[in-house]
Automatic annotation (TrEMBL):
This is Thiamine biosynthesis protein ThiS. Pfam families: ThiS. The lineage of its organism: Bacteria, Bacillati, Bacillota, Clostridia, Eubacteriales. InterPro entries: Beta-grasp_dom_sf, Mopterin_synth/thiamin_S_b, Thi_S, ThiS/MoaD-like. SUPFAM superfamilies: MoaD/ThiS. It comes from the Bacteria. Transmembrane segments: none annotated. It comes from Ethanoligenens harbinense (strain DSM 18485 / JCM 12961 / CGMCC 1.5033 / YUAN-3).
């Protein structure tokens, strides 16, 4: 199946969940917010939320920082 992830095309196996996708990319799900098709799914659903062909994902990683 084909997705768009942060503006880039991505091909994935069918039936992968959002959590499994993030882990396959080496992304700690606790450090990101994900928008799927202009909606922000509740984090509690990520283990069962199956991605589908044509989904558009935006993944935003939390960054620490501040003034030194």
């Amino acid at each position: 199946m084909k997705l768009q992830v942060n503006g880039e095309p991505e091909e994935l196996e069918n039936g992968i969940t959002l959590s499994a996708f993030l882990l396959s990319k080496g992304i700690d799900p606790q450090t990101v917010v994900v928008e799927r098709n202009a909606d922000i799914p509740d984090r509690s659903t990520w283990d069962t939320l199956t991605l589908t062909d044509g989904d558009v994902l935006e993944i935003v990683r939390f960054m620490g920082g501040g003034q030194a």
